[in-house]
Amino acid sequence: QVQLVESGGGLVQAGGSLRLSCAASGRTFSSFDMAWFRQAPGKEREFVAAITRSGVPTRTRYADSVKDRFTISRDNAKSTLYLQMNHLKREDTAVYYCAADQEYSFSSYGTQYDYWGQGTQVTVSS
Questions:
Q1: Helix or strand (DSSP H, E) at 92
Q2: CA 88 to chain CA centroid, nearest Å
Q3: Which of 30, 71, 90, 106 sees the fewest Cβ atoms within 10 Å?
């Protein structure tokens, strides 16, 4: 089991930046592939970014809509996942969730992830 708690969301103007954090507790954080997903009102949950676990070459992947604007990273010593979001747009408004995958799929599909946080709201105003 791993427990995930997101923080760092809020209200920001378009063009601004936010950094989300996801604090993990329980099983060893470094052994999980991790990801961020988001869900906007009335829309399905969508993949944002993923990062591989410790012990393998670090790989990241991003949704096309956030590539070159968002950066996923992790600090295994602090058991924390991050999402640095720059050049935010109104369409980035959503609840953002972190997720952990114990099967090493490095997937963009939410069904591959075993543990989820409760989410943090990001609202981008024009």
A1: none
A2: 15
A3: 90
Burial string for 14-30 (b: 16+ CB within 10 Å, else e) reads: eeeebebbbbbeeeebe
Residue 120 makes CB contacts below 8 A (sequence gap 6+) with 6, 7, 8, 9, 20, 95, 96
Token pair in block for residue 23:
């604090």
Tokens 């989820």 locate to 116
**Residues 51 and 81: beta-carbon distance below 8 Å:** yes
Is the separation of the CB atoms in 49 and 60 below 8 Å? yes
* pLDDT, tens digit (0-9, with 9 covering 90-100), for 62-100: 999 999 999 999 999 999 999 999 999 999 999 999 999
